[in-house]
Every structure is written in structure tokens, then in C-alpha cells.
Amino acid sequence: MLKSFIIHIVLNFIKLIINYTPFLFEILLWKIKILLKHILKYRKKVIKSNLSNSFGKTLSIDEIELIMNQYYDVLIRYFRESMYIMAWSKEKLLNAIRPSNSVEWQKFTALNTSCIVTASHYGNWEMNMVLFPTLIKARVVAFYKPISNKLIDSVMHNIRSKYGLELYPIEQTARIMTKLKHEQVMYIFIGDQTPVNMNGVYWNTFLNQKTPWLNGAEKLAKKYNLPVVYLKQIPESVKQENVFYTLNIIPISDDKDIEEVNITEKYATILEEEIKSNPPYWLWSHKRWKRAHFFKEE
Prior knowledge:
The protein has helices at 2-20, 22-39, 44-55, 61-87, 90-94, 103-109, 125-131, 150-160, 173-179, 216-224, 263-277; strands at residues 97-99, 115-119, 139-144, 166-169, 185-190, 202-206, 209-213, 228-235, 245-253. The radius of gyration is 20 Å and the shape is globular. The model has no long low-confidence stretch (mean pLDDT 92). The protein has one domain (2-293). The longest helix is centred in the N-terminal third of the chain and has 27 residues, at 61-87. The strands form 2 sheets. The chain has a 7-stranded mixed β-sheet, sandwiched between helices. By secondary structure, it is α/β, with parallel strands linked by helices.
């Protein structure tokens, strides 16, 4: 109870700072950036290794250093935006994201069937996934790995589900999808994570490196005959109308061609193109290739 009370006090204190003394919040963020980048050198080796292995053949050392510096700015941006989820009103948050006016977005919102929505750690997945249910009519379900600390897990669950996102532990995926098979549900899968279980992973060359992929979304799409799309989170300059992200939909497969499409490969191709277009916005501090040594040539 004491820990819960302390967390409650801290969260409310942060809300007060953000809403009533935003300049103090910006000073705090600036100090956090200095701490991460220059003092703790947060995951600097991991970031540099990932960038060098991905772009070492096409970019100079100076260009890779520039992306590293920009990445720390992006991390602070993501932290700021994630705090806004907790502090801002629903109306203010919705002004910060903008659905695309593309034909694909319109087709997606007009769907009368369930769909698998693949997403990635490019853009602020926390902000955009939390607000996603407010933009469409269907139920939105995401599967996640619970945090080992039950108190923190409960706090994060409450924040992430406050606008209608339904969260279930990842081991319940099959049970929940079977239970909801007669309802219209948008299932969110974030695919650019390092697989824990290497059995049956999909391998390809991604950013010049052999890469293992979780392919559960593809298997489930084919099992339940569901269309698959990619949710593109396009970062915008916050100076322009205070819009942080534009959300767009890229089709991967529909329920007619699903058996012919390599869904995981297409997802990886879309993500790679997205990363190359503006590298700092991907999660470079994630140890994406730590299990790449399991790859064996056939």
C-alpha cells in the first residue's frame, strides 16, 4: 500500500508540473537527456553497434554519430509524449495525433471484419496505441508481456487502457482470439521485438543483418483468415499545429490472398523502408540482434 501511495503521489506531481509549470518539465527533460547521453551514456555501445551494422556500408562515421545524437533527442521526445498520456485531457491528446486522409485509412475504418494491425517501435508506440481505439469504431486488443513488478504492471496497465485499449498477457492470445472470433476486433501486434523462443522464427536479411522475426501474427491471420495491415506512425514537427504523429495504414494482405502472401517478409520490408527514410525514430537501444547467432545456413 505504501508503494502504491508513493507512486500515486509521484504521478500526480508530474501531472501538476506538466500542466501548470511546463517550463520546469522541459528543464527536467533537458537534465534527463544530459544524464542519459553524457553521464550514463545509456546503451551507447548497443546504439552504435546497431547503427554501424545497419548503415556502416552506406553512411560515414560522422553520419552515424549524427543519427546517434538525434536518437537521444527522440528518446526524450518519446518520454515527453508518454508523460502527456497521463497528464493531458483526452481532447488535447487527440489534437496531437492525426489520422491520414488517405484512401487506405478510409478503407481500414470502413472494415466490417476483424483485422490484424501490425505495428513497430518506430514512432511513439505508447501514445499511438493508447489513443488508437478513439479513432476507430471496433474493439482494439493488444497482447503484451506483463512487467514482473505487479504494482508497476498495474499502473502501466491502467494508463495504457484508459481510452479503451484492451490488454491481455501474450500467452492468452489464442484463447482470446477464439473467444472473440464472432466480434469485430482490431488485434495489435508489435513485430520488431527479439523473439524469446527461437523455435519456428522467420529469418531474413534486415538492415544488412540476419534477423529473426516473430511470426505469430502471420500464423494467426492465416488460421482465422484475417486481413493484415501495417500501422505507420509518421513523426511530425510539434511546431506545426501541435501534431506529433500522422497515422496511416499500409495493406499487407487481405482475406483473399492471405495464403499467397509472406506476411512477415512484407512487414519487414515496409519497416526497413520506414527506418531508412528517417533513422533516428526507431528503437536503436533495443538489442534487436542479440539472438542472430542462432541463424544456420541451409
